[in-house]
Amino acid sequence: MLVTRLLPMNKKISPFRVNEPTVISFSGGRTSAFMLWNVLQENGGNLPDEAIVCFANTGKEDEATLRFVDNCSKNWGIPIVWLEFRDNEKKFEIVDFESASRNGEPFEQLILKKNYLPNPFARFCTEELKIVPIDRYLKSIGINEYVTFVGIRADEPSRVAKMKTNKDIKETPLASAGIGVQDVLQFWSKQPFDLQTITVSGNSLLSNCDLCFLKKANHTLSLIKDKPQRAIWWASMEQKIGATFNPGHPTYAQMIQYSKDQHDMFDPNEETIACFCGD
Predict the structure, then answer these.
(1) Which CATH architecture fits 22-198?
(2) CATH 3.40.50.620 residue window(s) in the chain
(3) What pLDDT digit, counting tens, does each position of 23-69 carry?
(4) Which residues contact 140 (CB under 8 A, 6 or more apart)?
(5) pTM of the prediction?
(6) Which of 61, 172, 199, 273 is the most buried (most CB within 10 A)?
(7) What's the distance, CA 223 to chain centroid?
């Protein structure tokens, strides 16, 4: 029998309320962490019984991102499930801050399995490295149907629109609450800890994979100049497969050379391509 719950007039339901099995997809960035904090506040500072927080590590997250995830768990007193892709029957492995991959091992496994590189036209990395491991983990503990909370803000309307067309059930509570980047930054400015990465216009340049091929070329070059060893793994993958991550950009090996030569030839107005790993 269908039961309709009647609410008092003008009574709004918080977009952060959890009343069914829900996975909070924590990318390791400030935005998704702020989403998690709001969920906790909606539940008196605690993690709702039906909520599970998952962080899917690709092995190419910056060390500061891993510390930030660990700090959120310790400071807020909540469990965060750390997952990584594995090329096996389960498709995932449970890890933690100490055992998490730091040299791109999960990502490399996926690339070598497929024998080609993800690129702007075939972005299989988010699906295979994040969505699938989380889904397989939830099914392994008996959760087959669930809602996913994704950290996308109100000032990212194109990402919100694309997310709504996704076949899976995904919610963007920050966008529903009208929260933008300045709200996120104001929150973190008052906290005892923060994400310690390079930030431009309120966004971490090192969010998600450190040199993601969807980043602006000039941002990528800046990150390589800051720490050239960041590009070694990316250049190695391009060499192994004999292809490039982004045909519209120079190879990572070329950008390593540009950084040595102090070249800065990329369009600063190039737009970063939206990735659905979250922020």
Answers:
(1) 3-Layer(aba) Sandwich (3.40)
(2) 22-198
(3) 999 999 999 999 999 999 999 999 999 999 999 999 999 999 999 99
(4) 90, 92
(5) 0.88
(6) 61
(7) 18
